[in-house]
Amino acid sequence: MKLPTRPGLSHVVHSLNPGGAERIVVEMSIDCSRDYDVQVLCLDTPGDWANELRERGVPVHTLWRQPGFDVSMAVRLGGHFRQHKTQIIHAHQCTPWFYSALSRLSYSEPRLLLQEHGRFYPEVQNRPRRFVNRVLTRRLTHCFVAVSRDIRDRLARFEGLDSRQIEVIHNGAAAPGKLTPSQRAGLRRELGFDATDFVVGTVGRFDPIKNLPMLVSSLATAAQEIGTLRGLLVGDGVVFNDVQAQIAALGLSERVRLTGYRRDAQRLVQCLDLFVLCSLSEGTSLALLEAMSAGVAVAVTEVGGNPEIVNNGATGWTVPSGATGELATVILEASRDHARRERLSRAGQERFNNQFSWTRMMQSYRERYAELLTKRV
Fold first, then answer.
1. Strand order in the sheet with 143-146
2. pLDDT tens for residues 321-351?
């Protein structure tokens, strides 16, 4: 096989089903394909976004991992890396990292970078895993990245890594094309909202970790005092039917719109007057960054990386996890104090531009890649 003229870069993921980490992989692969020979390896299933990459000329391979510890996975990964002439392995999350690290026992040429996007909730200690990571997995790894300081600390606590070796690179997002006032008004009408409605909502996976019941309950409380309150929930997932049932049980079916999965979620977020993220655990939420980039006021729970992005009272609101009453109070305040909401949204947009742009994030990873290629130790 002819050697590629560009360095071989392999992203390793669970799958490319819709999600924040998966969107990062898709966009990073496209961005890097100008300078690297990129491929994506999915351990489990290709996912809905695999064809999007293939159409852009980025190969996507699926290994169909078996349940439990698949002893063949490391060998098969090593074969792909050898055939592709991979020089950098970028493993996204811990299971892809584990198998990628083991692959280096049979094919040691690639340099390995771990990027941890998020963690389970709640987390429990797994002493055997920590031991394996300390004595083997981390020794086969050259670069450790966490998308928030909280994730860095949890990698050290639950995975046995040295926090001093973990660099924090917050996720970045590309600013969406800004809707004109008439476009925004037209899109709101399509969704069933009037110009006078105060629209609160979120974008993302309908997953238990996102704690959507907290948002729905807060909307129900605030709706008792805000006649024009409306909700917009964009996304799909395993708890979609549960959330829909809760909305009906609270008498909100005429007020809250569920769109399901939408490819134009970046446009829809601009229809909101207040974006809310109620997660029980979070890394660096792309949906949150996209809302801030569009100049939408934001309110988040004080978990994970959220407080690293939103400064309470300066660039948005933060509330304790599960504090339904406090979130309802924030919704009331945001609806009644237009001047403050505008001030916070502008400050949030400025913070995004200074700290969380896609360009800034990619520059950090390109620097890490260059170091991995030049420091052959």
1. 60-62, 37-42, 8-13, 86-92, 111-116, 143-146, 166-168
2. 999 999 999 999 999 999 999 999 999 999 9
